[in-house]
Amino acid sequence: MDSGTQTHEASSQPLAGSDRPIVFTEAAVTKIREFLDTLDEARGKMLRIFVQGGGCSGFEYGFTFDECKQGDLRMPQGDIEILVDSFSLPYLQGCEVDFRSGLMGSGFSVTNPNAKGTCGCGHSFSA
What we know:
Layout: E1 23-24, H1 26-38, E2 46-54, E3 58-66, E4 73-77, E5 80-84, H2 89-92, E6 96-102, E7 105-111, E8 117-118, E9 124-126
Parallel strand pairs: 1-6, 2-5
Antiparallel strand pairs: 2-3, 3-9, 4-5, 6-7, 8-9
């Protein structure tokens, strides 16, 4: 990774707050904390953000609760930690993740400065 970001294994320390390549807004952190406190499948795990092939524009964002795996980057966001794998990190570098709620529904939204194009739904992008 040429940006100076280090990959941390499961037994490693998380990145310091100023070294976060992805920023989660307070609204997103609050919602993640709520999920961690109320969903059985989330207890004792961390939120993983990832990129995978698919969606209308070529890549799509994914979120799941998971345990830290070798090669994962652990990023503190307030009192929670976020996981990202080494494949996804270059696509997510510099992103801001927010949680929005409105008449059209609610969910996480990603503002990605690396995206060359996005779809109308905001869940996929091209690189």
